[in-house]
């Protein structure tokens, strides 16, 4: 009986350990972070999350960027808005499909999330948001020029867990200096043959960039 209780406790501990270390892919379901395909093909395999983004990319005539055949090459980083965010944008603007969006808007929204270098979670510098709500850039982190021309201040931060500051998962935070808005990455380090995807939270809005 003692042996059975010991094994049960060991299994429970192992389960807890796994759930605590897989945090980078929990929020939007990308539990497998490495994909032996292009970024475009990865999007195609998960239509629930990425179909509307693909429609925007196609409308903007930017498919080659995600297939790795554009001048950006095969080492891009993309902060991707999921279909949930795009659907919210359509609803808020009285539209029912991506086809109703102006082509220039599609292009701008797509390029807002594109960084022309490969950056994994640990490649971004740690930082901390400013304690002053009127100051966009806090300490640490780094400012990047995105493909759209906008500037993002990006940093990583370990969230609080169990009431202990810094004991939680490391997350990427993106502050658009143009939109004056900070957004959190839900799932990071989704690696493909043509770059890395960092999936934005479901409550992210296109105007946040």
UniProtKB/TrEMBL annotation:
Domain of life according to the entry: Bacteria
Alphabetized UniProt keyword annotations: Signal
Signal peptide segment: 1-22
UniProt-listed Gene3D superfamilies: FAS1 domain
Listed PROSITE patterns: PROKAR_LIPOPROTEIN
InterPro entries xref list: FAS1_dom_sf
Keyword Signal applies: yes
Protein name in the entry: Fasciclin domain-containing protein
Native source species: Hoylesella shahii DSM 15611 = JCM 12083
């Amino acid at each position: 009986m003692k042996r059975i209780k010991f094994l049960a406790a060991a299994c429970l501990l192992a389960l807890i350990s796994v759930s605590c270390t897989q945090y980078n892919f929990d929020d939007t379901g990308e539990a497998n972070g490495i994909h032996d395909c292009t970024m475009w093909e990865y999007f195609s395999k998960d239509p629930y999350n990425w179909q509307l983004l693909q429609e925007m990319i196609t409308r903007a005539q930017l498919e080659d960027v995600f297939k790795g055949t554009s001048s950006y090459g095969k080492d891009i980083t993309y902060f991707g808005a999921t279909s949930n965010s795009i659907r919210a944008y359509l609803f808020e603007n009285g539209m029912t499909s991506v086809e109703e969006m102006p082509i220039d808007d599609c292009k701008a929204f797509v390029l807002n999330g594109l960084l022309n270098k490969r950056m994994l979670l640990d490649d971004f510098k740690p930082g901390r948001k400013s304690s002053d709500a009127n100051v966009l850039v806090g300490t640490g982190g780094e400012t990047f020029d995105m493909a759209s021309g906008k500037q993002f201040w990006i940093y990583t931060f370990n969230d609080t867990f169990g009431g202990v500051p810094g004991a939680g998962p490391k997350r990427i935070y993106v502050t658009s200096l143009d939109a004056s808005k900070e957004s959190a990455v839900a799932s990071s380090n989704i690696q493909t043959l043509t770059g890395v995807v960092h999936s934005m939270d479901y409550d992210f809005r296109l105007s946040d960039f």
